[in-house]
């Protein structure tokens, strides 16, 4: 891959994506055989927001490649709590590691970070902006299950603030994909993502109701509607209740549906779905390791 | 009423800038961009909705004793893409130019997204890429289409 940093899904070409996914497929098949590929490499993780899957899978990935990880630790115990800027924090960390994984609550933080560091920087989520490494594992999972061309995908939930949604929608424009966006009016895709999809000539439709189109979809990518986006509890419950998928709906409309979710879920994907053959969200989470191994292998 | 008659309504300036062919109705916003509110005492003349052969109607702004910086011209171009800028010295037009739409405007606009890293006290200048009909923040990708001048940094 020719990029030094992984900041946004917009930077990916089809060839970039396929190269990462092919490499990830090799690692998925032979995770034990690469133990010294990057012996001595140090990956720094700087997470200014909570994370379980992303952080742990990056740690697993670098360790499986023979490297090790150093972690900034919780923000409240770091120099950030003394008022240090993100730019300064990263310039310091850069001297300790061969690559940096950054998660930060503000949009554009990763883009700014690349102006201050020379080691590869991987954006592990910048506010409601982008989450490109999640997208690569989403694409890996979709390719494994149904393929990335001739794909009809529904993307449902919080499309406005969902960074995994923004990255996925933009990356999918590299493939022959029809995208259906399903959300309440108040959580529709932001103008910037809409603009990019339009510029790329993407096939896009928008819906407020999802049951009617379930039968058309190969994949339904569900995201959590976040309570804090609503002014009051009643409004949140009214909206989130409309976007809950259960086993009966799938059996009635589309038994072959592949269901993905970046996790954590609350109640938008009922536990009853877990036993269906199309429920792939745990495999999706596991795929974070080989995909991040592939990315690190190509960047380090 | 012809354009020539309109010109006669406003006295010539000795040294300064005449911004002509401003999109009709935008003259007051042009003054905002230039930070002109009359408090510094320089003579300012504004013509609004003046008939124009090229535009149908146009606004004209004349400012005594001021020449525009490139940054001011860049933002002006977003608001008044057809504007011409005449530099006046000793009552003569010594330079006449059309504004060019820039590829970007740097350090001029504030990002309206309060959660953008450019609003977080970090050492970073705002940077907006100019797109069809608007500008887009390089950092958080927020697009501004309407009322761009409302976002000029104070």
Counting DSSP H or I runs of 4 or more residues, the number of helices of chain A is 11
Shape of chain B: globular
**Uncertain parts of chain A:** none
Please give the domain count of chain B: 2
- Amount of beta strand of chain A: 15-25%
Just name the CATH architecture of the largest domain in chain A. Answer: 3-Layer(aba) Sandwich
Order of helices and strands of chain A: HEHEHEHEHEHEHEEHHEHH
User: Mean pLDDT score of chain B, rounded?
Assistant: 86
Mean pLDDT of chain A: 94
Please bin the fraction of helical residues of chain A. 25-40%
Sheet/helix structural class of chain A? alpha/beta
How big a fraction of the residues of chain B is strand?
Answer: 35-45%
Number of strands of chain B: 9
CATH superfamily of the largest domain in chain B: Aspartate carbamoyltransferase regulatory subunit, N-terminal domain
Could you describe the largest sheet of chain B, including whether it forms a barrel?
A: 5 strands, antiparallel
Poorly predicted runs of chain B:
none
Q: Write down how many β-strands of chain A occur, each being a DSSP E stretch of 2 or more residues.
A: 9
Q: Which class best fits the helix and strand makeup of chain B? A: alpha+beta
Gyration radius from CA atoms of chain B, angstroms: 17 Å
């Amino acid at each position: 891959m020719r990029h030094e940093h992984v900041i946004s899904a917009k930077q990916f070409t089809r060839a970039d994506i396929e190269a990462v996914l092919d490499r990830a497929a090799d690692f998925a098949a032979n995770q034990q055989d690469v133990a010294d590929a990057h012996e001595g490499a140090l990956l720094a993780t700087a997470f200014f927001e909570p994370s379980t899957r992303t952080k742990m899978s990056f740690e697993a990935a670098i360790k499986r490649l023979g490297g090790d990880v150093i972690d900034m630790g919780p923000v409240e115990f770091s120099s950030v709590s003394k008022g240090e800027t993100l730019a300064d924090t990263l310039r310091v960390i850069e001297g300790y590691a061969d690559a940096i994984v950054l998660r930060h609550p503000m949009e554009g933080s990763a883009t700014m970070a690349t102006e201050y560091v020379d080691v590869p920087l991987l954006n592990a989520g910048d506010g409601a902006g982008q989450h490109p490494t999640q997208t690569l594992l989403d694409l890996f999972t979709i390719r494994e299950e149904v393929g990335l061309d001739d794909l009809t995908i529904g993307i449902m939930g919080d499309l406005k603030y969902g960074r995994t949604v923004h990255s996925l929608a933009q990356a999918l424009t590299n493939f022959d994909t029809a995208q259906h966006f399903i959300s309440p009016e108040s959580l529709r895709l932001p103008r910037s993502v809409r603009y990019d999809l339009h510029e790329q000539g993407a096939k896009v439709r928008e819906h407020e109701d999802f049951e009617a189109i379930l039968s058309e979809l190969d994949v339904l990518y569900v995201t959590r509607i976040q309570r804090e986006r609503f002014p009051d509890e009643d409004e949140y419950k009214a909206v989130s209740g409309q976007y809950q998928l259960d086993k009966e709906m799938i059996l009635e409309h589309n038994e072959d549906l592949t269901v993905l979710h970046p996790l954590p879920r609350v109640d938008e994907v009922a536990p009853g779905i877990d036993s269906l053959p199309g429920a792939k969200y745990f495999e999706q989470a596991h795929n974070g390791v080989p995909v991040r191994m592939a990315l690190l292998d190509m960047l380090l | 009423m012809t354009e020539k008659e309109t010109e006669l309504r406003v006295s010539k300036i000795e040294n300064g800038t005449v911004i002509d062919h401003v999109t009709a109705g935008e003259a007051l916003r042009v003054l905002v961009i230039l930070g002109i509110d009359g408090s510094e005492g320089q003579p300012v003349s504004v013509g609004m909705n003046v008939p124009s052969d090229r535009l149908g109607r146009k606004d004209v702004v004349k400012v005594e004793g001021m020449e525009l910086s490139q940054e001011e011209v860049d933002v002006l171009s977003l608001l008044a893409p057809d504007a011409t800028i005449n530099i006046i010295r000793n009552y003569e037009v010594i330079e006449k130019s059309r504004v060019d739409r820039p590829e970007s405007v740097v350090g001029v606009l504030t990002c309206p997204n309060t959660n953008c890293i450019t609003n977080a006290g970090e050492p970073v200048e705002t940077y907006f890429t100019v797109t069809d009909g608007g500008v887009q923040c390089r950092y958080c990708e927020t697009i501004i289409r309407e009322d761009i001048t409302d976002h000029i940094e104070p």
